[in-house]
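User: quick one, fold this
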Amino acid sequence: MHELQGHEETIGEKRPHGVDHGGKAGRKNSQDRRTATENYEGELEPTVLIIGANQGGLTSAARLCQLEIPTLIIDKNSRVGDNWRNRDHQLVLHDPVWYDHFPYVQFPSHWPVFTLKNKLAEWLESYARLMELNLWTSTLLTCAKWDNEKRQRTVTLQHRRADGTTEIRTLHSHHVIQAMGHSGEIKMPSIKGMDGFKGHDIAQDFYEHGYDVTIVQCSYTYVRPSKNGLDVLLGGLYEEGGPETEDVNLMFMSIPNAMLKRMHQDATAEITKRDEAMLKALTEAGFKLDDGPDDAGFFMKYF
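Assistant:
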């Protein structure tokens, strides 16, 4: 599905004109109107409230805005992208660039195959600005109540302004999207001294500083180099010169999960064959390996 008849996106031939010629007393300029919309001034209300300003939240808002559906994103961080800026020092995305394109504004042709965390953080912030998304950072949802008769939700938001003061806003939305990650809520142990820990790959960090490192393995692990995995799983699809990302997404999302699992069993067997020498060396070193659930690899293991 590419569009809804009667609710087409405001792109291409339907793009905004951008100017309204003629004399109109008291009218606001484009920036004044944009500020009023972003702040939801007066009687303006968001039809959709999105919690979380990461990839899922931003791209959902971008689609909704092109359908002219009033949408507000809120995020507890002080800047868009902070959930990447504040991660491990060496963090890099494990998906290739062709897999990660955003709607309307794709990564440029010079973009690296694997994106560094701070580079992605800047991209997210720039994307939100370019797409003119209504977004409140430093904002918490403190209460949400559903009115079954009005078919809307009353939400109370605690918003910290740029000057450090805090305001409480009450808005009404018909829909709420929780875009806070698809891997579950954060589960953080309570360990003495954690408040001073910045987070990094400890084994790699010690190794790079000349230490002899021994890793204690808690459970079996799926291990494969990214090259062979990407060549087998994404080759011919998400790659340089491949089909349009939206077309490949449609192909992938059209595969029933049971069939997808069966396909990944064959793919995992091929990847294992290509990585045989490395896997043998790991096993001989004492590393405990697995091939994912029912030998279907890391994708099904992640699910």
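User: anything notable?
Assistant: The chain has a mean pLDDT of 92.
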